[in-house]
Design brief:
Strands 4-5-10-6-7 form a 5-stranded antiparallel sheet. The protein is globular and about 60 Å long. β13 and β14 form a beta hairpin. The chain has a domain of about 100 residues: Enolase-like, domain 1, CATH 3.30.390. The protein is built from 9 helices and 14 strands. Bound molecules: flavin-adenine dinucleotide. Flavin-adenine dinucleotide binds next to β2, α4, α5 and β10.
Amino acid sequence: MAVCSPSELKDALDVLNAPDCVLISGGTDYFPALKRGGSERTLLNLMKVREMRGISLERSGVRFGAALTWSEIIRADLPPAFDALKSAGKEVGSIQIQNAATLAGNLCNASPAADGVPALLALDAQVELQSAARGARQIPLTEFLKGVRKTDRRPDEILTSIFVPQPPEGMRSIFSKLGSRTYLVISICMTALNVVLDKGGRVRELRVAVGACSPVAQRLSLLEAEAIGQNLREIKVRDDHISPLKPIDDVRASAEYRLEAAKEQIQRALHELSR
Ligand SMILES: Cc1cc2nc3c(=O)[nH]c(=O)nc-3n(C[C@H](O)[C@H](O)[C@H](O)COP(=O)(O)OP(=O)(O)OC[C@H]3O[C@@H](n4cnc5c(N)ncnc54)[C@H](O)[C@@H]3O)c2cc1C
C-alpha cells in the first residue's frame, strides 16, 4: 500500500487522478471497514494539505478546513450557535478517535448515524468540493448527502471545506445523543436544535435536525415553522412534526422506539434551551 501525503491542494488533486487512489483523512472510518485485498491501493492522506487546515472567520460566515479534527473543533473559540457541533464532536468515539477523525470524513462516509450531521444541518452548512478539471463548487449539505453511504462527491473531487453562513445574532444551540451506553456508541437517535429568541423570550427562529432516524438526517420544517412566535415551553412536539423521519428496526432499537426517543429528545432540548 503506497501512502501519499501532499501539503498542497493542487498536488492532492493531481494524485487523485491516479488509478485506485483512495482518499483518507483520519482513517477512523476507512481502516476499520477495510477488507483484505485493499493493500494495492494508493492512499491519499489529506491531513497535511495546508488549504484544508484551520478555521477562518469570514465576513459572511465561518469556514472549517475539511482536515480539522474533532478535537480541534471542540477546542475552537466559536459563538454559542456552534455549541451543538462541539457537543457532537465530544460524542464521536473516544478522545483518541476525536484526535484523528475529521469533520469531512464524518460527512463523506455518509452514515445515517454520523454525529456531526444534525448540528451542521441546523447551521445551514454548505460543503466546498474541488476538482483539478472543474475547480470549486459549493453546495448545501442537504444536497451533498444523498443516502446511506451516498454523497454527491464526484470521483475526482476532494471535500476541501465546510462553510457555515453567519448565524443570526443571539443564536444558541444544543445537541443530544441517545445510545445504549454512554461512551463509544453508535447513536440510536440524536438531535441538534438552534434557536433565536426575541426580547420577550418568543421564538424568532428555530432549527431542528434529527439523525439516525432516516437514511439521511432531517430538518423538521413543520415544527420549525409552527414554533415561530411561541414560548419554548409552550411548544408540544407532535407525531406530525416528526413525520419526515423514516427510522429502521435494527439491533440497536426498533423504529417505533426511535420515533418516541426523537420526540422526547426534542421536547427536552426545547425545555433546556428555555432556561
Ligand atoms: C472506535 C470508533 C468509534 C466511533 N464512534 C463514532 C461516533 O460516536 N460517532 C460518529 O459519528 N462516528 C464515529 N466513528 C466513525 C468516525 O470516527 C467518524 O465518522 C469520523 O469523523 C470519520 O473521520 P475520518 O477523518 O477518520 O474519516 P476517514 O476514515 O479518513 O474517511 C471516511 C470516508 O470519507 C472519505 N473522505 C475523507 N476525507 C475526505 C475529503 N476531504 N474529501 C472527500 N472524501 C473524504 C474517505 O475516502 C472515506 O470514504 C467511530 C469510529 C471508530 C473507529
